[in-house]
Amino acid sequence: MAENSKIEWTTHTFNPWIGCTKVSPACDGCYAENLMANRYQRVQWGAGEDRQRTGAANWRKPIAWDKEAKASGTRPYVFCASLADVFDNEVDDRWRNDLIDLIDATPNLVWLLLTKRIGNVMKMTDPARGHRMLPRNAAIGATIANQDEYDRDRLKLWEVKQGLDPLFTFGSFEPLLSRVALDSFAPDWIITGGETDQGSHKARFTDPQWFRHLRDQSAKLNRAFFMKQMPRKQEIPADLLVRQWPIARAAA
């Protein structure tokens, strides 16, 4: 859950628990909800619903990945989490502390903690509130679907960068729902992509020029840029097939 992830910008995907609440336009066609709530009926999505912690065998996988990385001298990326949000208000603080312990215990892995709740990160990693500090091998990312979200969250992500000193920061501009103008507060890594169909939800329109605009701004601001996919699995134009990483990672 899952080794050798199919997500192009990571090596592995790890889900410490499953379940979330929609809080962004990016959530409208939620892959995780369509898979785990609608298809498998494993959890209920939404506020006040229980999150389901994954099993012990799943939690042991990163330990094995770390040992392999140490032996090979590589630094694999681990995306956490595709089926939940690490900084979800509904999650038991003890679960999050257990996750931080696991990240601390796997220093050869680069942990990508992506959230739609970037405003929670500072307080949920504050020892004065009884929380564990953010490990040095963790990168923090925010989902940013449009200009309004960028304007709202860029300074929150910058605060995390300045206050917690993560390995790097990143923005997941996927699904990209509008043209976005970056500035000097842009995250270190710009990941972007179009939407895919999810159940009854059909992929929304994305203009290729929006991707080109992010690519060009990333170059000017000295940010790494990663183009993941076009909407509806269209082929990526050759000039947009740019895939950069902030630091070296293991080969896919």
Protein model, in words:
The chain is of the alpha/beta class. It has a single domain, classed as TIM Barrel (Alpha-Beta Barrel), CATH 3.20.20. It has helices spanning 31-39, 56-72, 93-104, 121-124, 147-164, 208-221; strands at 12-13, 17-18, 52-53, 77-80, 110-115, 138-143, 169-173, 189-192, 224-227. The strands form two sheets. It has a seven-stranded parallel beta sheet, covered by helices on one side. Helix 6 (208-221) links the parallel strand 8 and strand 9 (224-227).
- What's the domain count? 1
Distance between the amino and carboxyl termini:
17 Å
Helix content: 25-40%
Q: What is the fold-level CATH name, i.e. the topology? A: TIM Barrel
Task: Name the helix and strand elements from N-terminus to C-terminus, one letter apiece.
Answer: EEHEHEHEHEHEEHE
Q: Can you tell me the residue ranges where pLDDT is under 50 for at least 5 consecutive residues?
A: none
Can you summarize the main beta sheet? Answer: 7 strands, parallel
Structural class: alpha/beta
**So what's the overall shape?**
globular
Strand elements, count = 9
Pfam family, one: DUF5131
Protein name: Gp37Gp68 family protein
InterPro entries: DUF5131 (IPR011101)
Organism: Rhizobium grahamii CCGE 502
